[in-house]
Amino acid sequence: MTLPSRLSSLLEQYDFARKRLADRMAGPFMDSGDGTDTQVGPMTDEEYLWEPVPDCWSVRRRVDGPGSRATLLAGTGDWGRDDASYPHPWPPPFTTIAWRLSHLSELLTLRADHTAGGHGLTRDDYPVSGDVTEAVAAFDAGATAWRKVLLSVDDAALDTVGYCTYPHGSDPDEPFIDIVWWVNQELLHHGAEIALLRDLYRARSR
Q1: 76 vs 40, which has greater pLDDT?
Q2: CATH number of the structural domain 5-203
Q3: Distance from CA of residue 96 to its chain's centroid?
Q4: pLDDT interval class at 116 (50, 70, 90)
Q5: What b-and-e string marks burial along 160-189, b requiring 16 or more CB atoms within 10 Å of the CB?
């Protein structure tokens, strides 16, 4: 299938942001922003779970229960991600790398399912990991699944309202091209947040 021309630039942006975040998390080199490679070590479990301020939202062992201002642990498995039923706490809690990466990986995985899969996955089905290696692998799997979706759509799909039935956003009410744009900005801004937290973690003892 020929990629629709108006999707090409969005796919290029998606690929760039995905690679930049993956390199930023795993190394051994990352794009420093000026086209040169900067050496970076892989993220550790301690860094992944680091809480730089009090009362962070993170991922936690289910037996320990949710963190401050959270009322539940989303996801499935031995770990869960801090969450609260609507209305959410205000101001929003500061979130760890683990929280942000789990959120990002979940939305990629679920949106892929609700576009070209079984349209049945929920947040309760999504495994949450306290292990950084597993979490990075889950991000890669979700990002790959979403990219596969993008390669499968045509112009008619891009204009179809509700082409993605993801239940935790405006997807059922928006044309699919707008959802593609939204996923890109989610990847870009959460990727930037994760990168900043890595910088702060590295500099914390200086």
Answers
A1: 76
A2: 1.20.120.450
A3: 12
A4: very high
A5: eeebbebeebebeebbbbebbebbbebbbe
CA angle 118, 121, 126 (to 5 degrees): 140
| Averaged confidence pLDDT in the chain | 93
Checking 1-7 for CB contacts under 8 A at 24+ apart, the result is: 1/151, 1/152, 1/154, 3/151, 4/153, 4/154, 4/155, 4/158, 6/155, 6/158, 6/177, 7/150, 7/153, 7/158, 7/177, 7/180
Determine the pLDDT at residue 206.
61
Tokens encoding 177: 């091209």
For residues 152 and 1, the answer to whether their CB atoms sit within 8 Å is yes
The H or E element containing residue 72 is strand 72-74
Global pTM reads 0.94
In this structure, how many other beta carbons lie within 10 angstroms of the beta carbon of residue 154?
13
Where do we find the tokens 């292990």? 131
Q: Tell me the helix, strand and coil percentages in the chain, rounded to 5.
A: 50, 10, 35
Q: What phi-psi label fits residue 40: left (phi over 0), alpha (psi between -120 and 50 degrees) or beta?
A: beta
The pLDDT score that the predictor gives to residue 204 is 87
- Region 62-72: what's the mean pLDDT? 96
Domain boundaries, the chain: 5-203
Contacts with 49 (C-beta within 8 Å, 6 or more apart), sequence order: 58, 59, 96, 97, 98, 130
